[in-house]
Amino acid sequence: MGADSGRAVQTATRSPGAPSPAAAPAGASAPDGRMPRARRILPRRAWLPWLALALVGVLAVAALVRTFAIPAEYTDAKARAAASPMVSKAIADAGRQPPAAATAYGKIQPSLVVITTGGGAERGLGAGFIANADGTILTANHVIDGATRIEVRFADGTRTTATVAEAKPENDLATLKPARLPDVVVPATLAGAEGIGQDVYAVGNPLGLTFSLSAGVISATGRAIETESGPLTNLIQFDAAVNPGNSGGPLLNRAGNVIGVVTALANPSKQPFFVGIGFAVPIAAAGGAVRAAPM
After folding, report:
1. Is-catalytic flag, 84?
2. For residues 129 and 249, is the Cβ–Cβ distance under 8 A?
3. Which of these is catalytic: 142, 214, 219, 239?
4. Compositionally biased, Low complexity: which spans (predicted)?
5. How many whole angstroms separate alpha carbon 65 and alpha carbon 184?
6. I need a surface site. Which of 63, 214, 248, 281 has the fewest CB within 10 A?
């Protein structure tokens, strides 16, 4: 059988209906010698996460467009409706604030002093203010110059005599030491010079009308004038009304701090009343006299 059997094996073919040969193992070459082509098949639901992510992106873009869209019509009524109640309250509170002049006067009022002087048959009237916690009074030197008796009246009605503690004629300033102090001593707050155009308030006793306030602005700084006592320099010029009785009184800023001491008024017509221009010595010139440096 040997030769015949080997030949039978070589020529044998699959008869009709016979089972197919087993599939070639992975990596086996095709009958023509080429590698079989691989096919990559995704799972059936693998595309769902990508679709969901794309949908989220579309919704996010739509939300941004809606957020930054400008309303077609934005009326005053809508604006008022959208305003915060706290903003409305802040506006109302600001409207109820007192004017700056009232604030300034309220701060200086407890420190004000009326000064009357005697010398022979003459009596003089001027103003001043408490400038130190020890009760030292600051005023203009010409108010007390040559006086034989000095009387002071504090804002609370306390009356007493006073003596000159220090005089600075070159700056027209003087400090007084009262014989008696009020129950509560309230010194004024001193401040540095202000600029041109700043609101100012002069407080004094013009023509005997005690504790009067007038308002104006700083018109100039660094002014020099001639007075009966000699030249004065580096003065604050202002347009708040001042008259005899204002001398020695405080010139205030909007906060009620003293920036100067009223010293003179322009008087080209030689009339003893206000003609529109007043002058004050800057408080910096008096800081050493009252032992209190300006703020």
Report:
1. no
2. yes
3. 142
4. 15-31
5. 67
6. 63
Which CATH code for domain 103-285?
2.40.10.120
Number of H helices and E strands in the chain, helices first, is 6, 12
Is position 142 annotated as part of the catalytic site? yes
- CA gap 194, 145 in Å, rounded: 29
Query: Token pair of 45, please?
Result: 């639901």
**Predicted pLDDT at 293:** 41
* Residue of 111, 172, 214, 239 marked active site: 172
Active site residue 247: yes
Helix (H) or strand (E) holding 203: strand 199-204
**pLDDT digits over 156-195, tens only?**
999 999 999 999 999 999 999 999 999 999 999 999 877 9
Contacts of 28 (CB under 8 A, 6+ apart): 36
- Catalytic entry in 212, 214, 219, 247: 247
